[in-house]
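Practice set, problem 2.
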Amino acid sequence: PPRPVDLGANSSWEGQAHPHYEQRALLGRGGMGEVYLCQDHHIGREVAMKVIRTERGSHQELRMRFIREARVQGQLEHPAIVPVYDLGEKPSGEIYFAMKRIRGVSLEDVLAGLRAQQPDLIARYSRRRLLVAFSNICLAIDFAHQRGVLHRDLKPANIMLGDFGEVYVLDWGLAKLLGGKDLEA
């Protein structure tokens, strides 16, 4: 059987500065963090880096929730879940995690475009393609459930569809761990 996700409660996390990431552009902003496009100079690839928002980074509980999100997402190794490459702390003290840089359009934008009868989206997203994407989302969520994780924020805005059939379930910040230790009571 799949092993449950482990938050590493028995291990300490000490942030380390990683100057090999060069921040390039803001990709998005959410309640907990900001996601930037970065260049990883060690590997020579673009990555997405989620950084805890400055006003939240001074609160210890929020810092622990951010680290928790990186660990949960990082341990859910599935083709439809964005892999986490690194977890660390910038020299400025901001905690970050680096992950695969994905490209595509949110399911929310696709559905809005289809409702608005946008010809390009109608041509790109047939009913069959959307059903295949839905099936992949279901498989990813089933995988997470088998690992003892409930997403708790599954919505079209947190689903990304790539140009080559990729499907990603995003934003594991509100996930709940079942049957084990969690930060919540």
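Problem 2, part (b): a different protein.
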Amino acid sequence: GVGEVDVLAVIEQMKARFNIDPTRIHLSGVSMGGMGAWTIGLRHPGRFASLTPISGQTDMFRWWGWDRERMTPFKRFLVEWDNAEELAPNARGQSIFVQHGELDHLIPVVESRSVVARVRALDIPITYFEFPGESHYIYWDTPCYENAWGFARDQVLAPSPTHVSLRCYSLNYNRAFWLTVERFKRWGTPAEVDARVSDDAAMARWGLQ
């Protein structure tokens, strides 16, 4: 979408004008921006040192009350394309700290709880903090930013993890770290890859064999 184009363009403009460390570029956002942080970050694994979404949507079926099973396959494919939950495998190798208010009336806390559970079910580490008794507007005060940016400050991009997962819906989003998907078996069905560097390959890379 337009928002993603703008975010990536701003990053490139900043890199062109300033001495930016490419291993310390972080993505954060609140509310709709939280959704953006989820979506952009999970579409581009290997680009950001950390993701810190705050109070963001993660599933458009749940958000709009759409029945996934009653949708035509093509429409379902387009909705899934924007869903952080569908892109959960892409969290592998990334440093993510999620925050939400327990009593959020605008974007219910299930939006964060659900995707965090889905990521953890894949045995991918992820950090989650919930503000007890707080509403959507946790970002009107400083603690959520102190949490997010305190976390981000210590993160550095690891460009070559030994285990990479990728679920992609378009060849515009076909890379995860060192992994590239070059074609789809069938358009309208996401590509899914789970790849590991073998011990032998790792040893050869470092000249130990």
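Answer key, part (b): The helical segments are 2-17, 32-43, 60-64, 73-81, 110-121, 143-153, 199-205. The radius of gyration is 18 Å.
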